[in-house]
Every structure is written in structure tokens, then in C-alpha cells.
Amino acid sequence: MHVRDRLFIGGRWTAPAGTGVIEVVSPHTEEVIGRVPEGTEADIDRAVAAARQAFDHGPWPRMTPAERAEILGRLSAIYAERQQQMADLITAEMGSPILFSVFGQSAIPQQVLQYYVDLAASYTWEEERRGMLGPVTVTREPVGVVAAIVPWNVPQFTLMLKLAPALIAGCTVVAKPSPETPLDAYLLAEWMLEAGMPEGVVSFVPAGREVGAYLVAHPGVDKVSFTGSTAAGRRIGAVCGEHLKRCTLELGGKSAAILLEDADVATTMEGLKTASLMNNGEACAAQTRILAPRSRYEEIADALASMVGSLQVGDPADYSTEIGPLVARRQQERVEGYIRLGQEEGAKIVTGGLTRPHDRGWYVAPTVFADVDNSMRIAREEIFGPVLVLIPYEDEADAIRIANDSEYGLGGSVWTADVEHGVQVARQIRTGSCGVNMYVLDPNTPFGGFKSSGIGRELGPEGLVPYLEHKSIPRPA
Ligand code: NAD
Q1: How far is the CA of 338 from the centre of ligand 1 (A)?
Q2: How far is CA 383 from the centre of its chain?
């Protein structure tokens, strides 16, 4: 049992302002595994005041990037040593299969942190340019106090995508973890204290959406970085527009995996286990629309049904598990609602369906719908669970048209025997990333959404820019 009675505010353990408690419930056993204080508006006020003070008067933004990198490098070393602890904790919190957790929930966040620690040494923080009338110094300064709001599906990854670049830039941060997954932020807070983070620089205030909205609108916040649903992103973007706050939005997706005529079906099926079904399908970039040439439709439908139907569903702490329980009963019911909807829309279930694989825990049978038309709601809306739709296409142009016929534009993949040709197809997909014969998010390369999948980019040097203000200082020759 993980019980906490303090909040991490201004980089120190502090008594909460309210009396509310967040209970963390295991998606596998449905038993309470943790309790933490529920953050309130008063806690946000204190966290923002600490961040404001640390930004306006404290050492953090005034240190050199190398000095900040030294402290964050210590944090990265601690993280690297204790990754397994983080993976186990997140699996317990939200049901991510441990095999995915050790990589996607802990190794990758640590790598992202290390990436920005390393980038601090090579990044151009200041330069001299020749201006019209004389020399100009161009500096990059931290943007200020950052509000970081993250979802429950990859809680450390989405947090680190914001925290690492913001901190290297010299910003101070108030982060709001999701109420489903507050525990991993506590572990990170402990490691931050060990690493010697100065006072005021980071706060974690776990709370629900109302407190999140309060943080977004807070006058002490200069920039909002949000990962979550498109619906919430629209509201947050509107509030930021009103206040002219800087804003990065990483939102939902309904990405396509295109199997070209020459794709090797067996290796593609192996690849789709990750690309389409990683993290129980609770992944923004999951490629849940599978596009198959009509000429090979039956063969691919059989292979997909057989691959998805044979996935090991069960205890997420077990290393042989491929699909664990969904985060909450609410999510289980939502996904089952889409399975029902798919049947009503006339699509055909070729594996899975509404029978629950286990009596206890929030499990859903991994499901594939065939005979899906891209206009159906199961092909247009984000389901966020292990449910795939198989859509036939006539020729390559038709495949590209269908892949792009979506409100979203986050990820995608092309599967082919001809990698160069696959790259040509990937170039025509209107999404922020599109893999060929694989899908991976790389710390060194930008990630983000076209269209309703968001605004801005995280990862790579591009992911540092949103935490910087560029300033020119011209002077006479
Ligand atoms: P959500 O939008 O309901 O909540 C995300 C976070 O925002 C939570 O911390 C929540 O408390 C908070 N929140 C919700 N409404 C808010 C508001 N109006 N103001 C301030 N804060 C608010 O999303 P979720 O159900 O927790 O997460 C799943 C969604 O996240 C999916 O749509 C998924 O695609 C998306 N996601 C996107 C990415 C990406 O990088 N593009 C990564 C992971 C998840």
C-alpha cells in the first residue's frame, strides 16, 4: 500500500490545504493500492507562488545550462538505477503490461531526461549575428512558469517530455498528474530531492480536471503544456488564447497502419503488436485503423484475427502478459460501448467481442472489426483500448486518401518489402510521425500532431524551443 499525506509543493513536502483523498485502485484486483492527498486550488496557488518566486528571484533560471544539466544529470543517474521500481509502480497503478512498462513507462522517460541533459552542452543558447546596423546578440531565455498537465496512460513519459526540456531551459514547473496515476510522480519527487533540485522549481499537485483548469487560467503561469484528449485540449487552447499564454497541445489520434500490396504479413503482424496494441491500446499514437489492399483482404483479416486472438490477456505484472486491464471501469465500459457500436454500424467482429476475459479486473477482449468503412464512428473516434478496425482499400492512392481522411494526424506506419517506396508513402501521410515497417518515438526526433492531434512538438531540439523566448539585442557597429 502506497500512502502519502503530503504534497510536493515548491520542491518540498508540504501539508495539503484540503482534506480530500485520491484513492488509487489496481485495475487488475480492483483493490485500493494507494492514497494521496487531492490537490486543491489553494495548493495550486501555493505551487504557482513558489514557482513564480523561484523563477523571478531564485537561482534556477540564472544558472548556466551546464549547471542545470549537472543537477538533472544526477536525477537521470538515479532514474537509470531505479527504473524497475518505476516500471513496477506504473504497472500497478494503471495496468500497463510490465514488458511494456520497463521500456515505455520508465526506460524511455529516463532516456528523454538524459537526452535533454546532453543537449544542454551542444545547444546554441546564445549567438552573435550581423544585423543591418551592427552586431546583434540573440539569446534564448526560459519562458517562465510552466503548467504541465498530463494523462494517466503514459504518466512518466508525458511528464518527462515537458519537465526535462522546461527544466534544462531554466523554467520552473507546476505539474498536475492525473488522479488515476499520482504515485509515480511521488517517486520522481523523492529522486529530485536526492538529486538536489533547488527549492521552488518543481511542484506536483495531483488533482482532477477542475483544478487543472484553475492551473491553466492562473495569472502566475506563463506557459501551458498539455497532453490529453482533444476535447480538453480545445478548451485549454481557448483559455491560453484569451490570456496569450504560450501553449503546447499533445492530443488524441486515430492513426493508420497501411499494409502495401508487397507487405510480408507475418512480420507485419508482429510489428502491429507494438504499433497498434502497445500499452493495451491506451496509446495516443496507436495505429488502430489497419488498411489492407482489397486483393489480400481475406488473408490479412485472418492473420490479424489470429494474432490479436492469441494475445495473452492477464495480470499486467506477469512478464508473459501482452494485454493487461484497462485503467478504470469507466474505460472498460467506454471501450465495450464502442464494440457494441461497431456491431450496430454493421462491422463484423473477427476476434474478441463483448465477453470479458476475466471476471475481476477491468479487462476487455482484444477485438478486431472487419468490413469497416472509414466513415463509421469506430473508424473515426479514438477508442483507447485494444480494438482494431480493418479497412479495405483499392489502390495506393486510395490507401493514402483513407489514412488522411481523419480529424486526427498523430502517428502511422507503412508496411512494405520496399522501404524506399514506404518512405515515399509515409511522406504523403498528414501526421507528425509515420514509421516504415516499425513505429517508435525517438528522444532525438520531434513528436506531435497535425490537425486535431495538437499544436507544437515534443522531443528532439524542437521540444526545447517551446520553453524558450528568443530575444535580440542589437547595438551600433
Ligand atoms: P483527459 O483530457 O481527460 O485528461 C488529461 C489530463 O488533463 C488529466 O490530468 C486531466 O485531469 C486534465 N484535464 C482534463 N480536462 C482539463 C481541463 N479542461 N483543464 C485542465 N486540465 C484538464 O485525457 P485522459 O483520458 O486522461 O487521457 C487520454 C487522452 O490523452 C487520449 O485522448 C490520448 O490520445 C491523449 N494522449 C495524447 C498523447 C500525445 O502525445 N498526443 C499522449 C498520451 C495521451
Answers
A1: 19
A2: 16
